């Protein structure tokens, strides 16, 4: 997990203005550094460099970190690379799923332009299976690398989950970034937390990003809850929420029992209780409610950050690949070959949700396996 390092004391941190806090947090996130110094400067070493195939065309589906990493390496190896991206801007998760306070988009776009200048083609607003034919791609490209990520969020199964005002965390993040880039956050063009009591269900970097954005929106209050205790949770003890706990309340060992609504169908409150963790006879962790800890709090916005189940169904319906029990793309004998002939998968779509660094590395390795496939099979 990327750590949130703040090089000043907590007392001084809390004295800063909100914009200054967010700027300091952004400057000390390691993701921007990683993008600048490693991800786009990866070079194929001579030992890994197979013969170049200038006339072999490869299609990459998705321009997130795995897709960009794969395009970078395949282009260096001499392949003709085209990246298909269904959104209006390249970058996938990095463009719309990562807040600007964490990764300024001009940095990302500059790196994408560098790939374009090096010979990589990007086709935007190209959704394979909808306005871009899968059959045409298979016909015109010798190999395909699926780097779609995992965009199918895990649903929230509890009473009140259909009330208005409940959003998946990714939709909240995407709406803010898209509105910022399109119109500088004109009112009504994004999901706003301004003046609201906000509940974030779940942890991880996505939940923490939501807390930061809700602060930037000037939410009235922010509560982030995690079922697990601090030793099991996906929220880093050194994370942003801990450093600003005067503004963001972070509760471990907390269960959301139900969401409450008003007479207009809007979410208006949450029923919570505390949990105590023990072990079953088989040694598995088991949680039970602590009697007398139930409480009801006012809430007008709920952001759900409980993970993803896998790639969207269209990936399996259109791309001819199989699903693992985890919901990710199954691969054949090698690490990345997903279907014959020459269909590969990489990134979160193959290995499941993980860090941006891992997705880039998956893209690099899938590119090398793709190149080796041609080296071994085409004489």
UniProtKB/TrEMBL annotation:
Enzyme class label: oxidoreductase
GO MF annotations, alphabetized: glutamate synthase (NADPH) activity
EC number, as in UniProt: 1.4.1.13
Keywords: Oxidoreductase
Ranges for domain FAD/NAD(P)-binding: 57-363
Entries under SUPFAM superfamilies matching the protein: Nucleotide-binding domain
Descriptive protein name: Glutamate synthase [NADPH] small chain
């Amino acid at each position: 997990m990327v750590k949130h390092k703040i090089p000043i004391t907590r007392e001084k941190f809390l004295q800063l203005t909100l914009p200054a806090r967010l700027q300091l947090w952004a400057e000390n996130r390691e993701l921007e550094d990683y993008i600048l110094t490693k991800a786009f400067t990866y070079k194929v070493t001579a030992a890994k460099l197979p013969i170049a195939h200038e006339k072999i065309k490869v299609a990459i589906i998705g321009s997130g970190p795995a897709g960009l990493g794969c395009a970078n390496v395949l282009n260096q190896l001499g392949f003709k690379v085209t990246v298909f991206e269904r959104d209006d801007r390249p970058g996938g998760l990095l463009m719309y799923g990562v807040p600007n306070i964490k990764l300024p988009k001009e940095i990302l776009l500059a790196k994408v332009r560098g790939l374009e200048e090096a010979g990589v083609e990007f086709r935007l607003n190209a959704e394979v299976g909808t306005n871009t034919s899968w059959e045409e791609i298979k016909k015109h490209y010798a190999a395909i690398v699926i780097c779609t990520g995992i965009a199918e969020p895990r649903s929230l199964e509890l009473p009140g989950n259909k009330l208005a005002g409940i959003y998946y965390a990714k939709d909240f993040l995407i709406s803010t970034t898209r509105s910022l880039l399109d119109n500088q956050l004109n009112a009504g063009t994004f999901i706003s937390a301004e003046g609201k009591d906000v509940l974030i269900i779940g942890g991880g970097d996505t939940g923490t990003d939501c807390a930061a954005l809700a602060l930037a929106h000037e939410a009235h209050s922010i509560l982030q809850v995690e079922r697990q205790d601090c030793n099991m949770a996906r929220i880093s003890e050194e994370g942003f929420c801990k450093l600003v706990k005067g503004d963001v309340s972070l509760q471990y060992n907390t269960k959301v029992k139900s969401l409450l609504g008003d007479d207009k169908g809007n979410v208006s409150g949450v029923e919570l209780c505390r949990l105590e963790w023990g072990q079953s006879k088989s040694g598995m962790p088991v949680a039970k409610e602590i009697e007398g800890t139930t409480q009801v709090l006012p809430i007008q916005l709920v952001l759900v950050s409980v993970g993803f189940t896998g790639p969207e169904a269209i990936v399996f319906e259109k791309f001819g690949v199989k699903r693992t029990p985890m919901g990710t793309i199954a691969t054949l004998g090698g690490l990345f070959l997903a279907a014959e002939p020459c269909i590969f998968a990489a990134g979160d779509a193959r290995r499941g949700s993980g860090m941006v660094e891992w997705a880039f590395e998956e893209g690099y390795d899938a590119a090398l396996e793709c190149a080796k496939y041609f080296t071994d099979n085409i004489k």
